[in-house]
Design a protein that fits this description.
By secondary structure, this protein is of the alpha/beta class. It contains 8 helices and 7 strands. The protein has a 7-stranded mixed β-sheet, with helices on both faces. Helix 5 (about 125-140) runs parallel beside helix 8 and helix 7 packs parallel to helix 8. The longest helix has 27 residues, at about 205-230.
Length: about 230
């Protein structure tokens, strides 16, 4: 099977090369989307062997969308998303894709909450955010998610059918909501998690935490209304 990896990256010069090099060799192509970085993220990623794209619009989702658009010309079987800060363990990629290959799952989410975490790696506000988001998604879509983690694998054709649109922090939760709505075969697996290299752009600041929380909760209610209306007119 053709496997591709998308890594959205903003100012990850110190870590991106390590992440790229530690991704298992079963991956056919690693795509790093340089999201308007002001450091040498692009140069470090390219030196490590990644395909480097540039996305000027500043946003996690925008970088992921750029990677997806590029992969449409490649049409891989599976795409894996992972952050470029080395907080996840790239070698666990093989574990994430196994249920897709062997058990025909559509979407596999790496849960930091279920896995082993380095002390201080997953801030309190992130854990609370996952609990609240998981509770709301269970109410609206009868799905039990424990985390909104970025490390995830999905069949590429199934990903395209989700018609992803969020350009900011709502990207990960949008994917989870739409996958549940479309009744994809979903599995969560525990993944290890460590302190990232460098400072988080989201939970590392009060402004980033508040903004992400507002966007995530807003995304849930937006799709609760949008998808329910869509269901009425089917």
């Amino acid at each position: 099977m053709e496997i591709s990896v998308i890594i959205p990256a903003y100012n990850e010069e110190q870590s991106i090369g390590i992440v790229v090099k530690e991704i298992p060799s079963i991956v056919n192509e690693i795509v790093v989307v340089n999201n308007n970085s002001t450091d040498k993220t692009a140069e470090a990623a390219e030196a490590a062997g990644a395909t480097v794209l540039f996305e000027e619009y500043q946003g996690y989702g925008a970088a992921c969308l750029k990677g997806i658009e590029y992969l449409k010309t490649k049409n891989p079987d599976i795409v894996v998303f992972i952050d470029g800060d080395f907080s996840d363990y790239p070698e666990e990629l093989e574990m994430l894709i196994e249920p897709i290959i062997k058990e025909n799952y559509d979407f596999v989410l790496g849960s930091r909450v279920l896995g082993i975490r380095e002390k201080g790696a997953l801030p309190f506000q992130s854990r609370i955010g996952s609990i609240v988001a998981g509770f709301l998604m269970n109410i609206f879509w009868k799905i039990k998610y424990t985390d909104l983690g970025p490390f995830r694998a999905i069949k590429f054709d199934k990903l395209l059918r989700l018609e992803m649109e969020d350009k900011w922090y709502g990207w990960t939760i949008e994917m989870q909501i739409k996958a549940a709505y479309k009744k994809y075969k979903i599995k969560e697996l525990p993944v290890k998690y460590r302190k990232r290299i460098g400072k988080s752009k989201v939970t590392g600041t009060l402004k980033g935490t508040v903004m992400a929380s507002i966007i995530i909760i807003g995304t849930i209610f937006k799709f609760a209304i949008k998808l329910n209306i869509k269901q009425l007119f089917k």
